[in-house]
Amino acid sequence: GESVGLHLPTLSVQEGDNSIINCAYSNSASDYFIWYKQESGKGPQFIIDIRSNMDKRQGQRVTVLLNKTVKHLSLQIAATQPGDSAVYFCAENRGGSQGNLIFGKGTKLSVKP
Amino acid sequence: DTAVSQTPKYLVTQMGNDKSIKCEQNLGHDTMYWYKQDSKKFLKIMFSYNNKELIINETVPNRFSPKSPDKAHLNLHINSLELGDSAVYFCASSQDGATGGGKLFFGSGTQLSVL
Question: How would DSSP label each residue in A30-86?
Answer without folding.
Answer: --EEEEEEE-TTS--EEEEEEETT-SEEE-SSEEEEEETTTTEEEEEESS--GGG-E
